[in-house]
Each structure stands twice: as C-alpha cells, then as structure tokens.
Design a protein that fits this description.
Six copies of one chain form a homohexamer.
Chain A (H helix, E strand, L loop, with lengths): L1 H18 L1 H7 L3 H15 L7 H15 L3 H13 L4 H10 L1 H4 L1 H18 L1
Helix pairs in contact in A: 1-2, 1-3, 4-5, 4-6, 5-8, 6-8
C-alpha cells in the first residue's frame, strides 16, 4: 500500500512538527482512531498548502476554545501553537478573540489551561 | 463620556474596515446589543494588537463554522475575511481545517455559505 | 389511567397558559413526542412550584438563545415570555444577559427573532 | 495512486448504497471537502466492519439530531436511514431516543424534517 | 397513584437491566431529578418498543460522545452498552462512527473513557 | 480615563455583590481577560436595569447548565445564586427547568456541582 504509507508517513512527520514527540505517543495507543488522526488529520488536512502552520494552529486553538468540553485536545494544541512559534502572548490573544463569539466561560478555561501548559514548560 | 466615545468610534472604524458599510447598517437596528458589538467586540477586542486582522478573521471563521447554528454571523465573517484580503481559496482552507475538530456537517454548511457569498460578489 | 390523564391534562392546561392555543396545535401533530412534551415538559416540569412561570420563561429563553440552532422553539418561547407578562424590553434584557456567557452571534439571532415575533403581534 | 483510488472508489460505492444517486451529486460540487467525505467518511469509516449499516445510520441520525444546527446533513441521513431499510417508525424512534440526552427542541426539529422527507417521497 | 407507580417501577426495572445495581444508586441521591430519570428516561423512553436495547445504547453512546462535556453520563452508558451485550470492539466502533460528524476530540475523549471502563471491569 | 474607571469600578462593585471576595481573586490573575469580565460582563451587562439580579442569575445558571462543559463557571454562578438570595431549592429548580431543553446529562452534572457547593458552605 504505497500511497497509504505515504499518507501515514506524511502525517507522522507533520504531527512531529506540530506536537513534538508527545504527539506520536498520544496517537499510538488509540488504535485505528489514532491511525486516522495521523492519516487524515495530519497526513491529509494539516499537510495541505494554502494556510501556514501558524494560521492552522490559530484556527484550531480558537475552535477548541469556543466549542468547550474538549480540554485534553485544547491542551495539546496550546502546546502545539507554542511549538511552532507563537508566543504565549499571541496564544492568549487567540483566546481573547473567542470572547465575542463564544463568551467568557470557555475563554477562562482556555487561559487556565494555557497557564498550566506554560508552567509545565518553564 | 470622552472615553466611551473613543471606544465606540474606534469600534465603528474597525467595523467599517472589516465589514464595509454593511456592518454599521447591521449593528444600528440592534440597539444596546449593537452598541456593545461596536464598543466591546470591535472597539475593545478587534482593536487589540498582537494578532493581525487576517489572523483574527481566520480564528473567527473557524469558530463560527465549528460551533454551527450561527449562519448569519458566519456569512458576515466569510465576507469580512474576503474584505480584508483573504482569497476565496484561503477561506475555503480555513473551513477545511475545521473538519478534524468539528466534523463534516458544519464544514459543508460553511462552504455552501461561502459559495453564496462569492456568487453575490461576482 | 387516572394519573396519566392528570399529567396530560395538567400539562395541557399549563401549555395553554404559556403558549396560548398555538401550543396545542403545535404539539398535536407530533404524536408520542408531542404527548411527552405535554406530560413531561408541561405536566411535570412546568407544573412544579419553586419558581414563578416568569422565572421559568427567563431561564428557557436564556438557554434556547445560548445553545443556538433551536430557532423554532426559541420563537415559541419568546412569544410565551410575552404571553405570561414579560415586556418586550425584559425579553430583550434576557437576550442581552446571554452575551457574556455565549457571545454575540446567538444573541443577535434571538433579537432578530424577537423583532419578528413583536412585528407579528403588532 | 492505486490505493487512493481504492479508498475513493470504495467510498463512492458506499455513498451510493447509503444516499442513492443524490449523494454523489451533493459531494461533487464540494471540491476537496467532497473528496474527503467520499474517501474518509465513506471509504474509511462507513466501510468498516463491526457495526451494520443500519446501526451506523441509527448512530448518525441520533448524533445529528442531538447536536442541532446541522439540518441539511440530518435531512440527508434521515433519507439514508430510510434508504437502507429503517421504517419511518424506527427513524422516529431514534429521534425519540434523543430526548433524555438532548431535550425536546432538537427532537422536534428532527421530527419536522422527517415529515418533510417522508412527504417528498410519498 | 397506580400509574405513576407503574412508570416508576417499569423504569427501575429497565434501569437495572441497562446499568446494573449502580444505576439505582446513582439515581436515588438525585431527588426529583433522579425520579424523572427513572420515570421518564427509563419508564417512558427506554421502555418503548421499535428499537432494540442494543440500538438505543448505540444511539446514546454516539450522542453523548458527539456532544462532548457529558463525561460522567458517557461513562455510565459505555458501561451500559457493555452490560447489554455489545463487545468492547463494537463500542469502539460506535465511537469511531462519530468522527465524521463531530471530529476527533470528542472521539478521543470517549475512547479514553472506554479504556478506563474496561480496565475497571478487568 | 474617567469613564473607563467608572465601568471598571462599577463592575468590581457588582462582581463583589454577586461573587463575594472570591470574584475579584478569580478575575485578577486573568489579565486583560479578567479586566473585560469586570468592565463588560459586570460593569456593562450585570449593571443594567430591566431584570433583577435574581433573574439574571436564574438565566445564567440555566445557560451554563444547558451548554455543558463550563463547570468552573457554573460552580461560580451556583454560589453566586445562593449569595444573592436564592435558596438551594430554588437553584435546584432552575437546574430541573433545563431538562426539557437540554436533557438529563447536563442537569445531573449541575446538581452534582450544586451539592459540592452546598457542602463547602455547610
């Protein structure tokens, strides 16, 4: 299956770029679901051109904040945003941008998570 | 109230930059709610530094797509994204970026709205 | 089934109080689902003591606004809030109260619906 | 790209089984997003073993009903559920099953859509 | 109140069938809310014909996964699905079926919960 | 900036009335986001006339319960509702009122949080 390999390999490389080693460790125990994350989310979607990785993470942090109830994945992408070069202030700015569209509660939760992620890295 | 004027005026200028004339027309009939959109959403939040207007619209289109059920405002911000310089392909790319986080249904709805917005402008 | 009759009858009376004749017409074509609305939503929940009908409608309009994507039922309860004695200004105030918790888009949609309901009644 | 072809072809066959000809017509104008629906949603997920197609549609109708704000896709899957052999009464039963988990408003909307789908087919 | 007793008793029997003893223990401390779960959710809805208990749990696990933010109840119904005869693989399959409709984050959370439920039972 | 001071001061006073000292402590570490909560949520919205503080908290508890996934803020507002004079039974009644509109899972979560808040205060 040369092409599936390509999607999986491309996804794994993209995942490593975004999440660091942690990404692969998170995805592996998830079985087929983890494989789809690598192949589809990272091999197909995150590997597209048309937006920079920085812009994709801005979109993702905004979405996961605004939807609420997706804290573990929001935490991963707060870290991913920092990994690919956003400053802590810029990530906070994305969280603040969600307020007019989703209100304060989900923004407070995201800011609390960001502080925890930053403290872990310090 | 000099400072309130400043927030309102700053918000109105920012709104015009994002939405064109249509923005003011949409906001005026909304009374106090419309005033808060100008003062808070645009005078406070959209007037902050730290992210470009392009990045704020990427975040906003992603959020409104992913949450679903906010079609009129999504339509406004699909237009706003085009107004401030994103290409149609880039807006489509933001919509595609929502798929791994919110699934296909809300992305299909957003793409359908984008086509309607583009057809109106053509 | 004397008690089921009581729940259904009590619910129907409560529904009439809240929605006017329209309520029964809306519920009847829904079959079993409509029967559960009468028995459970109105015969059980809306017939409880502990909060006034005014307070129950304030809670309901706030919820339906904040959740988004439930426009037909929000429209019914905007009318119900007016039926049981809230002024148009008070209903607008409930909608404004949702902004810090759910953002502007769902509040704009609710205000637009409120205007349509008020125009129909004028 | 032999394997991509396989995923796409397998997805198209599965989509035809679920949605009839309408499915392909809906997906084609959606560009890359439509291709991902065919490849990933139908070629990968819907082509898995482990649940019957009937069970997959029960899950899908329940989800789309409960989440709200996804009416066009709910309409497609109400039709799909009928296409693959659920009776109208069974689809209504899935909608009723959502009430304890998501409340009445989204169930009412789904039942209204089901009636429209049934009327179109009559 | 003979009929209310019937609804309550029927609900309690259905709850025991679905949740095992844990169900009654969970519901009892919830007061009137717990009584409505027994009477309405289990005495009325879960006691209906038209879908098998297996199909009702497939719908419920799919909904609770897709909506997100309802982890304690999702955990209960992951256990319930296993109780009434779904295999762990089938429950995982329901979770995978939610991906195209609600994205990866809520599916990852559900799979993590399923692993915890399975570990507890082992 | 006399007027900004006024909004901030008015908001701080309103926040103290609603949340007690805990409110200011929660808001201060949140930086600009915390400032917007004081200025906009409390200085603008909660300081409006047209609804009593009791009615605003009823709306807020209902919304936060129904949306799910906003537990820390729901906990704050369950306490706030008690602070401004609702009885525990009345707060429970607001939670019960959400069932027909958002289902049982979010209501169970809110009732569990209410019990925790009451136990802390006892």
């Amino acid at each position: 299956m040369p092409n599936e390999e390509t999607r999986f390999e491309r996804g794994l490389a993209r995942l490593a770029e975004v999440d660091g080693k942690a990404g692969e460790e998170v995805v592996e125990p998830l079985g087929d679901l983890g494989r789809y994350i690598v192949e589809f989310a990272f091999g197909d979607i995150y590997s597209r051109e048309g937006l920079s990785l920085r812009e994709r993470e801005i979109a993702t942090v905004a979405m996961l904040t605004a939807m609420g109830g997706r804290e573990p994945q929001l935490r991963v992408h707060l870290g991913a945003a920092l990994n690919i070069g956003l400053t802590a202030e810029e990530v906070e700015e994305v969280i603040i941008q969600t307020i007019p569209y989703a209100g304060f509660p989900t923004a407070i939760n995201a800011l609390t998570l960001l502080k925890a992620v930053l403290a872990e890295r310090a």
